[in-house]
Amino acid sequence: MTTPWRAAVAVADVDGLHFPDGTTEPLPPLEELHSGRFAALVHELGLGHGGKRGSGPSASRRPSDGQIYITAALAEALDLPIPEDGPDTERRAFLAARTDHPFLARARAEGWTVARWGTPLRIYREQETGRALSAQLVIVPHHAPFGDRFLDDDPAPALLARRVQQLADTVGITYRRSAAATGHALLEATRPKNGRRADPLERAELPATVLTKGRQLYVAKNWDRQPTPEERKRRYVLAYDTRASYLAPCGSLAVGRGDCEHRTGEVEFDPKVPGLWLAKRPGFEHSRTFDPFGPEQRPGVPAAGDERRWYYTPTLAYADKDLKADIKVYEALVWPDHYRMLEPWYTQLSTARKGITPGTEQCVSATVKDVYTHSIGLFNSDLLLGAPGVKPEEMDPKDLPLTFRPDVQQSILAAQQANLTRTITRVGETCGLWPIAVKTDCLFYVVDDPCFETAVPGLKLESAGGPGQPMTLGSYKPEGAALAEDVFAHLKPGKRWFPKASAFTAPEDWSV
User: Fold this and answer.
1) Separation CA 165–CA 46 (nearest Å)
2) pTM recorded for the entire structure
């Protein structure tokens, strides 16, 4: 019978090893401790997560290596090199110059492979029979500058162990260098190379247009407008936040793989095919919300004829289905072969979001959100390219990481903004209320009713069933409220006048 893992993590401090269940065990003598000894402890203590020794959805995936977090106090006692605060490049250079430190060198002398410092530090040793011994060591002072929420308040060792365990159990794998890196590791874990449980991640041809013009077509919305005379007479401004608005489209998003096809001439738009389309800007009749097709040509700026613009598929799909627009396409870069690359990833993370309970620490639940939001951003990040200043369009396509997919990140933003527009126009057309501001995925309405549940009819609110009630992705929850006169005190001509979140009262403290 397979013995279950004792835990995913232990935290090593000067006073011993701390486990998520609150128990402690003594450390070996300080003079014995080096990275190899810690790696051996991972196996002696039965640390790991997922696989045959795991439980829940992670049991069907390859196991994550067990982790030991080494506190700042223990790092000091072991005389580990700790870089000063500064740019990440300087910190990396400081550690790169100290790979001969005894903490690493003694492990190598005992047959362990550990080339450099890392966050986490990865170490393994081959065995004559069976699987290699491997572990991840997280030296907290090396990791702390990354700003992870669960480290922000310098938690006690036992609390840190509990938080890291909660993260592993909720997300489905152990935490890695960052929330974004954890999300990409989860994607690779849910799409194994052998493809037994899902199609593996597959490479897609990324033409130069996708790697240049196609990288920054969509950004998070930061929009506001001037209040109407009628709105100036109303008394309150209520804010509603979309639940998991970036995660919601991921389950059904079609992602290209293989060759990209360049189409010109008479091009017919196909809403089922992922791609980048040069199309005539569709018309949009609503002036009291942002235009999902981009601003109209500015006065005084020469018009580009019929205003040809590049759009990813979800934007034109919205125009085609919801607005019944006549889509005129002049050129397209599309992937005829496609799959739902993010579907198993989405399933795991949506289950994680829905599974957050009142017993889950707030910093842990916030980190779960960071995992998917930061992961989506990482698809379009130069951090994946290696050396600073490298341009993806100048690289050998085979050298681009599988998860460097700016088209995926941009398509998710396109789908998220199309979904926001659907909600805004439905509410506006049915009850006459239009947002005065949109900030990423938060809608602000000027109303006369101070009650979140009844002020904006037609807005699909999250179930008010109480603590532990499952979360509905794409629904809305109260985010904040303020007196309209206090908000309008910030009013100035033009745009970008809307106050910051600090001007709003939290829903639980709101009363009139």
Assistant:
1) 14
2) 0.90
